[in-house]
DNA sequence: TATTAAGCGAGACGGTACGTCATGTCTTTAG
DNA sequence: CTAAAGACATGACGTACCGTCTCGCTTAATA
């Protein structure tokens, strides 16, 4: 319906896939620092122009590759209580962080978002804020049910959850585990009425 | 004790200062992405080799410049209660984050630490872990006085504090403010016995 | 036959010309010692890579420039006698050596051929030996007609001619003139039967 | 008479020798192109300043080293006839050129003399012209005895001799041998009265 | 017997050019 | 019009040497 019939050759899905696969492989093999547009083009047997035509930067290619491969869309749980919802949310996130390739890629993207302001904007809007919104739904329900800790607003709860996750990813490089998830739940969703 | 008197010309303190100043200026003016060793050398009137002789990478120069200029060593408060100590710690950190130049530099360093593993190791050991240790002392005293929230270990408290700070710096780009500091205190150091 | 129609952009003849011109100008202005690839690139408005892509060293660029500009291919005379042929050959060579720019360039190339063995091989094969072959034809005809001095082989005659030319170019820096040419003819192609 | 007695430490003959030896070794091992002042200093255990204090350039060091080691002063023969003198002169020169290290060094010096005009002047005056003068004596005696070929002046004879020697050294890289020496004698000092 | 003036090894310094790499654009031929 | 190929101008990289300049230390001649 969108571009139903334009003249000219169609975008090659084969090239697109080859680019995304090559990008993930190269990033995994030598790290994001060694990832180059030239390298991606060479590995995928594609012209550089084909990459520049469809993505604004190599970080966007990587983000696209990650999104295409790993399903980053953690579904929003609704278990009836904030405690259960948060536990499930953290558990699913934990599963993601376990795959070191996904973790490494997220690290690289967050890094690039700091260095390249244009990509930073896209990364925040297309990825970070969507994740915030997902958790936001859970927290909003908690707020309505008065399940949040006293004196702590919804925004802060979200910041604490994602902050802890990202900090462990970026700084200590020990992605969150079940114990840590348990402690976060204890902190943010205490049992007492 | 180490190299008290070796033969040969001594390191030029003047060049060192010129390099650090030029580095901060360039990073502030055009952003870390535009910071180059050549640029630093040109601006500071120094040969490139002099930079490579003393620092392993431009990120190390920037870290050195930041450490030399802004006193990042937040002193460890001891006000008698975890609540007061944490509040003071956050307040002082808040003051730091307010200076946008410091915040921008920290963002760039954390980013570079993800992309360049060698620098990452140094950044963690020379900066991040020292900051952890500082807060660690406060939290340890709190643990001894049983002032920590139930079911939450000292390590987690530290992760939550720094995580929230860094997340706001990197992701939402709204460095912590007094309200947020208050909510963190409410969450981590509740008044009730 | 070689690369009739490959995909990809064609080599820019404009860049090639600009490089050769800039090379000759720079060598003339400041001498071969001051000739640098960077300088050539800057003067000709070309990327360094474009130079490295097509020539192995700056000496090769200079040789190419010389060959393209000054027609070094002295035609082989055939006047019927060795005496006349040699006189004409020396006269034409004399004309070349008169242009100080050509003389300076030849000096530099011969020098570089000594210092850089790889270029030396190319210089000998692409330039020196071709010149030898040209004179070789003349001398061979002389040998057939028994016009060579007694007890002196063709190879030696060639060595003496080019040796004297080069020696005056390199050592005394007084390129050959008409009188010297006359004496060489008297020595190598005596009139008496 | 010059600097009979000044205060201060005397020039270290040991360092001088070490420098000259290191220079010859390095030039022999990796070629003149790889010869550097830093390399000489490192190999000889000497400070760079000590080299710069006594020699204007590395080529001068090499020339000094060659002059100190190989006795380049070919004595002027006086055998009674030009034919015999020239034969002896060529024979002695041939002996020199046989040692490939000497030949390589001469090649490098002649090359450097083209590229570095200041050294070129010194090389010509201190080396090339002295050699010319030596042969000049022989030729002058021949001229007085009317032993030179008809129509060929003394200067040209010298140019032909050295020209041929140098050309074979630089261009064909086949230093003169006994047969070639014989042919040169036949050409320049014919037997006929 | 000091003092003073060079020479010395070491090595840091401001420079310049090197040859390589990657960028993002442009041009050519093929589908 | 898209694609692969590949040349192009640009600009930074990290390295190698250049020739100069301190350093702290000998080593002599002079006072």
UniProtKB/TrEMBL annotation, chains A, B, C, D:
Keyword Transcription regulation: yes
Keywords: DNA-binding, Transcription, Transcription regulation
SUPFAM superfamilies per UniProt: Homeodomain-like, Tetracyclin repressor-like, C-terminal domain
This protein's record includes keyword Transcription: yes
HTH tetR-type domain mapped to chain residues: 13-73
InterPro entries: Homeodomain-like_sf, HTH-type_TetR-like_transc_reg, HTH_TetR, Tet_transcr_reg_TetR-rel_C_sf, TetR_C
DNA-binding region, residue intervals: 36-55
Taxonomic superkingdom: Bacteria
PANTHER family in the record: HTH-TYPE TRANSCRIPTIONAL REGULATOR RUTR, TETR-FAMILY TRANSCRIPTIONAL REGULATOR
This protein's name: TetR/AcrR family transcriptional regulator
Organism of origin: Amycolatopsis heterodermiae
């Amino acid at each position: 319906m969108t571009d139903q019939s334009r003249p000219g050759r169609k975008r090659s899905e084969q090239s697109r896939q080859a680019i995304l696969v090559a990008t993930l492989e190269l990033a995994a093999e030598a790290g994001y620092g060694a990832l180059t547009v030239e390298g991606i083009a060479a590995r995928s047997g594609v012209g550089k122009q084909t990459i520049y035509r469809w993505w604004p930067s190599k970080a966007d290619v990587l983000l696209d590759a990650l999104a295409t491969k790993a399903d980053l869309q953690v579904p929003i749980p609704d278990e009836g209580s904030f405690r259960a919802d948060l536990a499930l949310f953290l558990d699913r996130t934990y599963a993601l962080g376990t795959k070191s390739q996904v973790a490494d890629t997220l690290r690289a993207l967050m890094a690039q978002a700091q260095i390249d302001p244009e990509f930073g904007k896209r990364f925040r809007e297309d990825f970070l804020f969507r994740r915030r919104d997902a958790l936001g739904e859970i927290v909003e329900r908690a707020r309505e049910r008065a399940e949040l800790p006293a004196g702590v607003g919804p925004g802060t709860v979200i910041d604490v959850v994602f902050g802890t996750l990202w900090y462990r990813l970026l700084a200590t490089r020990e992605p969150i585990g079940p114990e840590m998830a348990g402690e976060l739940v204890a902190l943010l969703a205490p049992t007492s009425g």
